[in-house]
Amino acid sequence: MIPLSWYLLVAAALFSIGLYGVLARRNAVAILMGVELMLNAVNINLVAFWRYGRFPEQPVGLAWAVFVLTVAAAEAAVGLALIISIYRHRDSVVAEEMDTLKN
Amino acid sequence: MIEQIIFIVISLFTLMMGWIVVSNNNLFHAALALMASFLGVAGLYVMLDAGFLAMAQLLVYIGAISILIIFAIMLTRRMMQTEESPFNSQPGLAGITAVSVFAVIAFIFWQMREFWPLGAGEGAMPPADKSIILGSVAKLGEYFVSPDAFVLPFEVASVMLLAALIGSIWVAWPKTEDES
Amino acid sequence: MSFSFLEFLKSLVELTTGTYLRQVWGAKPWVDPTLDAIGVILVATFGLLIVLVLIWLERKVIARFQDRIGPNRVGGKYGLLQPVADALKLLTKEIITPSGADKWAYNLAPFLIVITALMMWAVMPFAPGVVGVDLNVGLFYVLAISSVSVVTVLLAGWGSNNKYALLGAFRAVAQMVSYEVPMILSLLIPIILARSMSSVDIVKAQTVPFAIVVPISALIFFISSLAEMGRTPFDLLEAESEIVAGFHIEYSGMKFAMFMLAEYISALFMSGLFTTVFLGGYRFFGLEMIKTASGFALGNLIGLIAFFVKMFVVFVVLVWIRGTLPRFRIDQMMDFNWKFLVPLSLALILVAALVDKALPVGVNDWTRAGVHLVSNVVVGAVTLEILRRNGRKQRTAHEEVRENADIETAAAH
Amino acid sequence: MISDWRFIAFFVVLAPLFPALPIGINLLLGPRKPNYIKQQIYECGVETVGDTWVQFKVQYYIYALIFVIFDIEAVFLFPIAAAYGQVGLFAVIEIALFIIILTAALAYAWGRGVLEWV
Fold first, then answer.
1. What pLDDT is attached to residue B159?
2. What CATH number does residue B8 fall under?
């Protein structure tokens, strides 16, 4: 007998952890991992609202979760490719050092 | 009762692994913890009757995205340095932001406790026919190709995947002389 | 209903012990979980113990292919106890952890690889009604679990602190993820034909075995599952002569044995999956449904035997291939996958989807099978023609280069 | 939670025992005399040179990348295939479009030469 808000709280906690990773990590790949955690938290919410909602026979939440999955994959693919490219040109993966456009 | 214990165990596991992801110095261990965290989320999906999505989570996140991340770690060797701090210049500020985001959400739930009960045993999962739950996978398939539902996002998703592939190859593949 | 030993024995032969015990114990909350736990232990024990048979079988068969006798000392004339002796030897070996190993990754890998190999058996239908659990996403579950085993290889390679292990792991992962694509795509076609992802439903839908309905898809699935398991001719992940032994070089004792164990378990599983999806699983000309006049379901036993015979025939074919074919080169292997198998299986999905919708609703199974077969044969013929032309073009190009070189050498002289 | 997944849950809990048992017996029966020479890592008869975690080439990443794309495709196509009896003829066109767009992705990778193993 688990109330809906438990799932939502877990998702919120996971989202905050991911957010912390995104804001606080030096390494660009680690920042991407934080983003993935945040997207997962969103997906938990979507699925929980589908299951606890009034129309479980219409899997709209599931469909959106699959689209979020797609976006997450595309984001990881492009993001990591960018990191690899930047590493090749600048020999660095520290997000703070990528400041060519500064000043 | 058992269900609640399982839920608490799975979610604590997920959150702990998530914490390791954002705090561990060794990037490879962070990637492992990320996989474990994804596994925990898959467990939550199963508890939410979304078995198909749980399996998609394993297939895509653990089987594909994590491997992509580990390959990227291997390709950028300086990441393996573990002496420095894993954090940038603003971990404190980031921590305050993250905690306050969580606090705001939790406060909203506390305000809405009449509508979404917080106590164990209240507001249980609405019962659904087993046939509805099992049929949700086929229904999902119908939605993806039905013109009244998700056919446009479905096709756009394929275009986005195409764009992502072309973009990443363009960015990551070393240019030959005549291209650059 | 009270427990009677005779009835229990009868249900064992009939393979309906679960139903019988449920009747005996009545509807109590602990009954279903207990039965599930027993089922898990049975499936996992089966998976572990069958490996002893498989090792013996493989050594014996491969020996015959190479004109040897094979194991013939331990356990009688046929060396039946050889695998047991091997296991005992491995049990008394020292487990060495290499210096500088990543402890977590190094120790986790042998566990995970066996767990994933065992977990795949959960959805395998052994006989009518004898299946771990009939998940509605059965085949998708298999794919998901097998994609987790890819990660395990990476863990082992990384954790060992050895260049060969890491190189082997990277090659292995590149190979496994590449061949997972045609495997996934060729599994889609049986799902389209059966309109379900559940393994049991797929077996039930095979009035005509899918290997006859869509032979090319079956072949693609077979080839890509060979590569997925890393068996010859795709055993580049442990190419002894190139990268020593691949990702598990630094493991010893039982931890090493776990990798071998998992390899055999998944080899048999892939044979079983091929049987289930393409060869009709436990079906045997309707005999699996018969009941005696007294209501005794003898068919279940026939189904079980049919399934095991088919599965072991496929397994022996695997061994046969190992005994016959040499190893691919890695660039050939990648080309073969991405430039041949993947485009072909994409084309096959399109054709199968189109043909299946073009047929009128309610047409009988044999007509449907015939039309699919014809479309498959046409696709196969077109592919062969393209391959032939390509091959000819390459040959002529090659010959021109050689002729030019000959002329040059002649001029130099 | 529907009961189908209870079996899988039990499997997740019980399966670690099966590899743990033989490894545990091995730990009890096998000798344990580690020393420096024994624990050295293997490298063709010489002492290992340099760091193990050397940099790898981008080729591996590209294969994983294309795999991700096709993996997502599977997530979309599997439910459609399972619902194939319920969808109309229109669905065939959509599936064909979807597959053709992804084939274009493969064709791009092919034409760009990233599929060649160098």
1. 92
2. 1.20.120.1200
Collect all residues of chain B within an 8 Å Cβ-Cβ radius of residue A44.
41, 44-45
Asked if B164 and B104 sit in the same domain, the reply is no
Encoded tokens for C225: 């599952």
Is there a domain that residue B143 lies in?
yes
Query: How many residues are present in chain D?
Result: 118
User: C99–D95: do the CB atoms touch at under 8 Å?
Assistant: no
Q: Which parts of chain A register pLDDT below 70?
A: 91, 93, 95-96, 98-103
Check residue B43 and give its pLDDT: 93
Shared domain for B107 and B154, answered yes or no, is no
The domain ranges of chain D are: 2-111
pLDDT for D46 equals 58
Residues B24 and B60 grouped into a single domain: yes
Looking at the 3D structure of chain B, how many domains does it have? Answer: 3
Cβ–Cβ of D116/C331 closer than 8 Å? yes
C220: confidence class by pLDDT, cuts 50, 70, 90: very high
- Asked whether residue B71 is domain-assigned, the answer is yes
Could you say which DSSP state residue C237 is in? G
The answer to whether the CB atoms of A84 and D61 lie below 8 A apart is: yes
The CATH T-level fold of domain A4-97 is: Helix Hairpins (1.10.287)
Closest-CA residue of C relative to B62 is: C148
Q: Are residues B5 and B74 in the same domain?
A: yes
- C-alpha A71/C-alpha C369 separation (Å) is 38
In chain B, residues with a C-beta closer than 8 Å to the C-beta of D102 are: 158, 161-162
Q: What is the mean pLDDT of chain B?
A: 85
Range of the structural domain that residue B132 is part of: 128-174
**Long-range contacts of residues C394-403, Cβ cutoff 8 Å, at least 24 apart:** none
Cβ burial of D112 (10 Å; 0-12, 13-18, 19+) is middle
Buried b (16+ CB within 10 A) or exposed e, B43-82: bbbbbbbbbbbbbbbbbbbbbbbbbbbbbbbbbbbebeee
The distance in angstroms from the start CA to the end CA of chain C is: 99
CB-CB: which of C37, C90, C353 is closest to D92?
Answer: C353
**CA of B131, closest CA in chain A: separation in Å?**
9
> Which residue among A18, A69, A80 places its CB closest to the CB of B56?
A69
Contact C315, C268 (CB under 8 A): yes
- State how far residue D43 is from chain A, nearest Cα, in angstroms: 29
Helix axes C215-229, C163-194, angle to 10 degrees: 160
Dist. CA A7–CA A3, nearest whole Å: 8
Amino acid at D57: K
Counting one residue from chain A and one from chain B, the pairs whose CB atoms sit within 8 A come to: 262
Same domain assignment for residues B1 and B78: yes
Mutate one of D2, D5, D62, D65 to test the A interface: name it (highest A CB count within 10 A).
D65
User: Contacts of residue C181 in chain D, CB cutoff 8 Å?
Assistant: 66-67, 70-71
Share of chain C above pLDDT 90, in %: 22
**Where in chain A are the domains?**
4-97
Domain D2-111, CATH number (from 3.40.220.10, 1.20.58.1610, 1.10.10.10, 3.90.226.10): 1.20.58.1610
Contacts of D5 in chain B (CB under 8 A): 46, 51
Minimal Cβ distance to A13: which of B15, B157, B167? B15
pLDDT in tens, C139-179: 999 999 998 888 888 888 888 777 777 878 888 888 888 89
For chain D, residues with pLDDT lower than 70 are 1, 38, 41-56, 118
Interval B141-172: pLDDT, tens:
888 888 888 889 998 999 999 999 999 988 88
Is the pLDDT at C265 greater than 70? The verdict is yes
Q: Are residues B64 and B117 in the same domain?
A: no
Kindly report which listed range (C92-96, C180-184, C343-347) carries the lowest average pLDDT score: C92-96
Nearest to C147 among B52, B58, B134 (CB): B58
Give all chains having 3 or more CB-to-CB distances under 8 Å with chain B.
Answer: A, C, D
**Token pair of C34, please?**
């207990």
C241 CB-near residues (< 8 Å, 6+ apart): none
